[in-house]
Amino acid sequence: MSLKKLLKEKGYHQIKLKYTKTNHLELVAKINDIEGSFILDTGASSTCVGIDAITHFELLSEDSDIKAAGAGATNMLTQISQKNRIEIKGWKKKKVDLVLFDLRHVNEALENHKADKVHGIIGADILKRGKAVIDYKNKALYLK
User: Fold this and answer.
1) Matching InterPro entries, A to Z (predicted)?
2) In DSSP terms, which residues pair with 100 in a beta bridge?
3) What is the CATH number of domain 3-143?
4) Residue 59 · residue 51 · CB < 8 Å
5) Are 21 and 98 contacting, i.e. CB atoms less than 8 angstroms apart?
6) Angstrom distance (rounded) from CA 30 to CA 38
7) 24 DSSP 8-state letter
């Protein structure tokens, strides 16, 4: 039996992924019913949205004590947006908290490699909630 069939029988949703030119896995997700493009990052503890996408997703934000660190950048100030809805290809969760911070360094790196900019990062918080299985060979994410 294939992994896809096994996971579908267990109630998982299949989400197609694509590789960016930087070899990151990218997917489309909706936050509060508004579509955006996201990098899948198993090493990111939280799902994040770029500060420049706050209005795109109509997010309410408040200052946060959390300091973000990521590829090439540390100690970045963050905000938080609480109780959002996220939907990824039919898989839905409510009451999702998002970390908001400046993703310019991420998007500049993508643009330098002629890859498209992203609105944010899907992190381990969502992957854990969805009991994620990543099929790298077939470029698919499964969430339950």
Assistant:
1) Peptidase_aspartic_dom_sf (IPR021109), Retropepsin-like_bacterial (IPR034122)
2) 49, 79
3) 2.40.70.10
4) no
5) no
6) 10
7) -
Could you give phi then psi for residue 54, rounded to 5 degrees?
-60, -45
- Other residues' Cβ atoms within 10 Å of the Cβ of residue 3: 14
Question: Going by DSSP bridges, is the β-strand pair 91-101/25-31 parallel, antiparallel, or unpaired?
Answer: unpaired
Side-chain-side CA neighbours of residue 31 (13 Å): 30
Give percent of the chain with pLDDT exceeding 70.
92
Match 């009451």 to its residue by tokens: 95
Kindly report the pTM of this predicted structure. Answer: 0.89
Q: What is the 3-state secondary structure (H, E, C) of 37-70?
A: EEEECCCCCCCEEEHHHCCCCCCCCEEEEEEEEE
CB 13 within 8 A of CB 64: no
